[in-house]
Amino acid sequence: MSRNRLRTVASAATVLKTFTASRPDWGVSDLAAHLGKSTSSVHRILSTLADEKLLEQDPETGRYKLGLALFDLAAAVPSQRTLQEAVLLPMTDLRNTTRETVQVGVLDGRHVVYVERLDSPHSLRFFSEFGRRADAHCTSTGKALLAYTPTSRLDRLLKGWDLPQRTEHTIIAHSALRAELKRVRRRGFATNRHESAVGVVSIAAPIRDQRRTTVAAISVAGPAERFDEHQDSIAQAVTHAALAASRRLGFTVAA
Predict the structure, then answer these.
(1) How confident is the model at residue 56 (pLDDT cuts 50, 70, 90)?
(2) What one-character DSSP code corresponds to residue 248?
(3) What kind of architecture, by CATH, is found in domain 78-248?
(4) Where are the CATH 3.30.450.40 domain residues in the chain?
């Protein structure tokens, strides 16, 4: 395949990734402006994707949205479907027990992508967008995933990674992050106190599959004032939920 064709595939993938839960449809002009590309080139990509049923165009507005072919592709990803099935009941139990927002995230390079969420019933609650990406080093979910990442892969991730400082509490030194990940492995869960946003606290634990590979992490997040008195019980509930989800994926405690 020529370099030009590879660039075309990459451009099409970039266009598809701009369609999110918070931005489900795009017009040609605003998408071109968003991507910094010419209107004509974006129009060609959108038209081609629509011809392949990966996108659909609204006949009245002319705007594009994801097409049915993508739902067929998503249904063909058994690992994601299995993860969703495995976490649904433990997530529900965890939310009912803690009455806080519960999320499940997976590691994507140096970021966490939240793939499942159940909101807290409290009027004051932690809110995050489905499909949201966050820095892995300053979230409990990210630290739970990084802690169980093989050493060689973790070394590659850290190389050249200038850890962004989100608050004054964010870990920004590699040595401090490695020490934190060691504590996570020792305790079996990760914490985030004001590291990603001031006032927000979260606790996460890893979810493992039948090969004992960490494939995701489950977390509880909420306002700091509600966590201070119940952190130990929340941590216990999170680790219990993570183990329940892991067992549904075939994980056993004994090696």
Answers:
(1) very high
(2) H
(3) 2-Layer Sandwich (3.30)
(4) 78-248
Mean pLDDT score, 160-178: 94
User: To which residue do tokens 């058994």 refer?
Assistant: 78
CB within 8 A of 50, min separation 6: which ones?
Answer: 56, 57, 64, 67
Structural contact between residues 176 and 183, judged by C-beta atoms closer than 8 angstroms: no
**Beta strand ranges found along the chain (DSSP E):** 25-26, 55-57, 64-66, 101-108, 111-118, 133-135, 190-193, 200-208, 214-223
pLDDT tens-digit readout, 126-147: 545 445 789 999 999 999 999 9
DSSP type of residue 138: G
Q: Is the pLDDT of residue 124 over 90?
A: no
Q: Does domain 3-73 have CATH number 1.10.3430.10?
A: no
pLDDT tens readout for residues 97-113: 998 999 999 999 999 99
